[in-house]
Amino acid sequence: MNYGAATNWTIVFFTFVFWLAAWFLNSWLVKQEEKTPNLRQFNSIAVPIIFGITLLVVWEGLVRGFNVPTVLLPPPSMIWERIINSTDILWLDFKQTFLKAVLIGYALGCGSGFLVAIAIDRSPFLQRGLLPLGNFVSALPIVGVAPIMVMWFGFDWPSKAAVVIIMTFFPMLVNTVSGLAASNNMERDLMRTYASSYWQTLFKLRLPAAGPFIFNALKINSTLALIGAIVAEFFGTPIYGMGFRISTEVGRMNVDMVWAEIAMAAVAGSLFYGVIALIERKVTFWHPSIRGGRN
Predict the structure, then answer these.
(1) What is residue 156's three-state secondary structure?
(2) Are 257 and 249 in contact (CB under 8 A)?
(3) Which residues contact 116 (CB under 8 A, 6 or more apart)?
(4) pLDDT tens per residue across span 13-42
(5) What digits encode the pLDDT tens for the residues 89-144?
(6) Among candidates 54, 61, 49, which has minimal Cα distance to 23?
(7) Are the C-beta atoms of residues 283 and 211 closer than 8 Å to each other?
(8) How far is Cα 73 from Cα 30, in angstroms, rounded to an integer?
């Protein structure tokens, strides 16, 4: 018994040593940027990777060192083993939740929010009527909306896409309306001196100025869409889907499978966000926030 306790404290000790070593390595890499600016691009990749590996090692070491029950918190190695052995199930869940509910709901929610923002900008009457209504819809609790959407659209992915549409509509609406007002009066007066129509001014001046606002909404909605679809699946879904699997496996005490679904959702959400951020850098390269990040 004492030998087992000593072994556990040995694991904790080496985990702490690894954490200190990674901390000093990252600190050293960051300090080198002042001496060698060319290392900034390398550090932008290396530092997050080292930090992520350190987090996994500390997680593994502390869980095993303190003998934490796997039903409370499984180690990353156990979660990885579950991912490898359940790729077929995870892929079915991913297709049901992300490729159907999230992407379709995201496209419809963001698209409709953008079009309504254009209509509001065109009509002051709509601005006074639709913005308060949109604010009301955004305040609706998802746990109250999801069961209603299931009753309206059935148990399959359309009901989850409807929840995603509701969650992503208002952020896109508000950000686009704010972005369309970002251009100043001098720029608009210049367009009028060129006899530009409303639509010419919109496409050549106001939408480019609203680009950072629109992409900000797209990035916010990339996370909201995934959360909304997963939570909506708790209230009724076919026999697959990320939310269905999480709620089912929790009841069966298969916590490693729950964490496998959480890991897959986190990776999918991060990649989705990263793709949108990459597109933003390509489209709004002229904006000071993007140019400043390249210096």
Answers:
(1) coil
(2) yes
(3) 126, 130, 134, 169, 173
(4) 899 999 999 999 888 888 777 666 677 777
(5) 999 999 999 999 999 999 999 999 999 888 888 877 777 777 777 777 777 777 88
(6) 54
(7) yes
(8) 32
